[in-house]
What does this fold into?
Amino acid sequence: MRSKLLIIATTALSLLSTPALAHDQLIEISPAPGEVIATSSFEAVLTFDNPLLVIEGQTNAALETKPAESADWVTHPITINGNILTAQVNLTETGSYDLRWNVVSSDGHPISGESTFEVDAAATLGSEEIAITSEEPEAVAFAQPVAEAGSDEIPAGFYIGLLMVALGAVFAPIGLMMRRKSKKS
It folds into this structure.
């Protein structure tokens, strides 16, 4: 009896003790940290090592900027295509800017980071000087879409429920064996 319990416990633990996988990582960002760019309107591009998680069309991500001396973050509209997040950034003045981002990695965990870059109106591209515009960037609100009937995508709650059933199937027999053993003693 003791050997059966040991085999079941070992099997259960081996199923549950899989090695922890590292979260996805940012492998490239433009503008790069410390980079001086010559225009106030540009496309920020973040490239990750795995596709980002997008559920039912919801991006689960954001990219924001602020002047370095300010506390007011501005959210920029983003798009996600596989492992690439792109945001259209329109800034209002020259100077140093902080950029922060957050996404949901392919394993379902949120990851985030920050970077600093500089906008220099005096920088030139070729022989043409780039002017800084005074357009106000638009804020984007992310809303959770309602799942439509007949949708082909499976909601995340289904996977959580499936995991709970699997854990119950593994631990219920162990609990019953332990209970029987305690009654016999």
Q: What stands out?
A: Residues 105 and 134 are 35 Å apart (CA to CA).
